[in-house]
Automatic annotation (TrEMBL):
This is HD domain-containing protein. Residues 25-135 form the HD domain. It comes from the Bacteria. InterPro entries: HD/PDEase_dom, HD_domain. CDD domains: HDc.
Amino acid sequence: MEESYQEIWKLVEPLLFKAKRKDFLIHTKMVEKAMREIIAGEGGDTTFLIPAAILHDVGWSEVSEKLQLAKDEERKNKALQEHIQKAPKIIRELLTKVNYDKDKIERIVDIVVAHKFTEPKEKEKQILIDADTLSDTYKESFYSDVKSYGSTPREIWEFRSKNTFYTKTAKEIFERELNDRQKEINNK
Ligand SMILES: [Fe+2]
Ligand SMILES: [Fe+2]
């Protein structure tokens, strides 16, 4: 593998444990994996896109636990908004610690804050949204979500199967993974 971003990972890991809705460590690892696979097909600058993947959900660490676990739609939405609002400050502090350039940091912040509630035209922002969505279909994430959400594999499969993508690469990998999950479910 190319760059490993170990230093960033070391700082991000303890923050991800504060995110309660599901296993965000597995989720974030799978988003990084999805990001690398999408870049392999679509191109893209890893020095922005890989840190953006690793840091995209770090904002959850500063959303109150109560709000994270809220069940009603209004507060769920508030939690989602907060995980975006809290992200820039955390990302700036963290990437400054590992000596990232200031302008690179701002570009990463820009990519991360666009991963919810927007339909961006810029490819680097679209790629993060695709990686976030695609990651949920990978084996590790898929069965981790089955546990976290207390749903059956088939229910999660139905839900995921409606996902849409910006890039051709993400869509192709998605269809392959979705197919594999279906085979696993049918063989049980
Ligand atoms: Fe997110
Ligand atoms: Fe995410």
